[in-house]
Amino acid sequence: MIKLYGITQSRAFRPLWLLKELDLPFEHVPLDFHGDALKQTEYRTLNPNGRVPTLVDGNLVLWESMAINLYLARRYGADTGLWPDSVEGEALAWQWSFWVMTEVEHALLTVLMHGRVLPETKRDADKAKRNLNALTKPFRVLDQALAEREYLVDDRFCVADLNVASVFVWCKPARVSLKDYPHLAAWLERCLTRPARKQAQRA
Ligand SMILES: N[C@@H](CCC(=O)N[C@@H](CS)C(=O)NCC(=O)O)C(=O)O
């Protein structure tokens, strides 16, 4: 059986959401990243980075949340529509998944950490502001991409939308306004109101 390591309140949320979309049976090991659990030798054998998530499926041990999702959708998602129909569609799923990790994730997480999560004494308002400004360009790119389409690939919800939305989900807790990006905001709402996303949140 598929095994997924990582608490819901971590990047393990991304594969958790996808596993719920795929309606696959799996064992969830809610490993917390705050304590020492990730330092244990047994877990390090699976994931030498000492981070979550990690997926085990048969002989395959896989880490990196986006790679896990691309694998799961490719392997189990064809009949669900979660994997694109064409090679071109697959290329777009990779493109958006790499894009969100390289152009958005770090800056948005920094805004979240320095705006809300860190104790007030450790927050750096300038750092939060700089990173918020850095998000303008990628947010515009996504907003424009969604101006004339409902979803990123093949005009239906697929792994590309899930991967990108699972990073943009931080906008709300980070209090990042999307009022200048109406297409992005509407698409994010479509993605985040899916039943599987809500089920994953409760896992
Ligand atoms: N690029 C990795 C990042 C994984 C990551 O940083 N996970 C955090 C939890 S959200 C973690 O395990 N942190 C513990 C640590 O860095 O010690 C992914 O997307 O899977």
Fold blueprint:
Layout lengths: L1 E4 L7 H10 L3 E4 L11 H6 L7 E4 L2 E4 L1 H12 L10 H31 L7 H10 L1 H10 L13 H10 L13 H11 L2 H7 L2
Parallel strand pairs: 1-2
Antiparallel strand pairs: 1-3, 3-4
Helix pairs in contact: 1-3, 1-7, 1-9, 4-5, 4-7, 6-8
The structure holds glutathione (GSH).
Commentary on this structure:
The chain is α+β, with helices and mostly antiparallel strands. The protein is built from nine helices and four strands, in the order βαβαββααααααα. Helix 1 (13-22) packs across helix 9 (195-201). The model has no long low-confidence stretch (mean pLDDT 97). Residues 10-11, 33, 38, 50-53, 64-65 line the site of glutathione (GSH).
- Catalogue the unreliable spans: none
Q: How is the biggest beta sheet arranged?
A: 4 strands, mixed
Mean pLDDT: 97
Total domain units: 2
Strand order, sheet with most strands: 2-1-3-4
User: Radius of gyration in whole Å, from Cα?
Assistant: 17 Å
**Termini Cα gap:** 17 Å
Report the top-level CATH class of the largest domain: Mainly Alpha
Total helices: the number is 9
**CATH fold description of the largest domain:** Glutathione S-transferase Yfyf (Class Pi), Chain A, domain 2
Portion of residues in beta strands equals: 5-15%
The structural class is alpha+beta
User: From the 3D coordinates, which CATH architecture of the largest domain would you assign?
Assistant: Up-down Bundle
Question: Into which percent range does the helicity of residues fall?
Answer: 40-55%
Small-molecule binders here are: glutathione
**H-E string:** EHEHEEHHHHHHH
